[in-house]
Design a protein that fits this description.
Methylamine Dehydrogenase, Chain H; 2 domains; 4-stranded antiparallel beta sheet; globular
């Protein structure tokens, strides 16, 4: 090989190396700045077309994007009164009125389309507008296996093997708040004192979650299929990991907070009392430790004046709740749906996994080495 070719080869290697290092640095910079697959949302107002409806709330969304909620006509004033109330199901832009018993509210919908509806006194499970199971009183959550939990401490088994209604209940001895598809239940107990202490029930046994200060009320409020629990510790929102260890959610200028749901991507939504705002719907990603006041995502001059509360989030990242909406010079409370809008993948995302990190730099290096071996 001539000296000239050797010099050209060295220059080419240096140039390629600079490109690889440069792209790697860019990739690392983007990775540390929080590159996400989606950082914008489309907001959809959810209010059936009844001309007298001036209140609605979306209570639950399943992993198929089907939503259930309530809508009402209420009187004005400092103490609004309900004139009438109905329940709705929303899917792909279409509403359907739900034929639940009088005064019942649609509380939850699972992935099979089964709906838990009721009030403090009675609850039933419905499918296709037909009641398929009467399950007593005080139920607050149920899962994809048809199992429901009651805040009064009763656990309902909604399965076909349960022939005697008395066999459908297990007394847990604590106030249950949520159940996942693994039949893990979370809530709180006051055994040993008057302070609420967070617990989880699994495999027939109760396990205490971390609770460092005895004088702080604390409870699990939601549980995902990983076994992670979202709840409150004193006035702070928090997550207990699969080992029961406590992790506080850092919410700036917050005086009180309640998580309402946690999906299988470890994303939490709920309500936070934030200074200068009041009640605000929030989003928190436990993996990235990212907190978002969902009101910060509203476009300028939006009819939405405040998103007050987020009730639920599914595994697709769709969020539902209710907030203040201005129309015809009046402010009403209406339900909303936030649909994530995927952003274009960054150019430095070489392996197209939606994240820019060292894996992309490795891909660049591998391609560079292959090019060198061909010369």
């Amino acid at each position: 090989m001539s000296l000239e070719k050797i010099i050209k080869g060295i220059k080419k290697v240096k140039s390629s190396l600079k490109t690889a290092i440069g792209l790697g640095i860019v990739g690392l910079a983007l990775a540390t700045s929080g590159v996400k697959a989606a950082d914008k949302y489309e907001i959809v107002k959810l209010a059936p077309s009844d001309p007298n409806c001036n209140f609605s709330s979306a209570e639950s969304i399943n992993n198929n994007g089907i939503i259930v909620g309530i809508y009402r006509e209420i009187t004005g004033g400092s103490r609004p009164q309900t004139i009438w109330q109905k329940n709705f199901l929303y899917q792909d832009g279409n509403y359907k009125e739900l034929n639940l018993d009088q005064n019942y509210e649609a509380l939850f919908i699972n992935d099979w389309g089964e709906i838990l509806g009721g009030v403090n006194v009675n609850c039933d499970i419905y499918k296709l507008n037909q009641k398929i199971e009467g399950i007593g009183h005080g139920y607050i959550d149920f899962n994809n296996k048809g199992e429901a939990v009651s805040y009064k401490g009763d656990y309902f088994y909604g399965n076909e093997e349960c022939t005697d209604p008395r066999d459908c209940y297990i007394y847990l001895g604590f106030r249950s708040r949520a159940i996942n598809d693994l039949s893990q239940i979370t809530g709180y107990t006051t055994q040993g004192g008057t302070v609420y202490r967070p617990v989880i029930w699994e495999n027939g046994e109760r396990r205490d979650l971390e609770h460092p200060q005895y004088n702080k009320h604390s409870s699990g409020l939601a549980i995902n299929n990983l076994g992670e629990v979202a709840g409150y510790y004193g006035v702070e929102a928090c997550i207990w990991d699969v080992n029961g260890k406590l992790h506080i959610i850092n919410i700036p200028d917050c005086s009180d907070a309640d998580p309402e749901a946690i999906n299988d991507n470890s994303q939490v939504v709920g309500l936070a009392q934030i200074k200068q705002y009041g009640s605000c719907a929030f989003f928190y990603d436990y993996k990235t430790k990212e907190f978002v006041n969902l009101n910060d995502l509203l476009p300028e001059n939006s009819e939405w004046k405040r998103l007050q509360r987020a009730w639920d989030i599914n595994n697709k990242g769709q969020i539902v709740g209710y907030g203040d909406y201005e129309e015809n010079g009046e402010t009403h409370t209406y339900a909303w749906l936030l649909n994530p809008i995927s952003k274009p993948k960054p150019l430095a995302d070489i392996n197209k996994d939606g994240i820019v990190n060292l894996k992309d730099l490795s891909e660049i290096a591998n391609h560079w080495l292959e090019d060198r071996s061909r010369e």
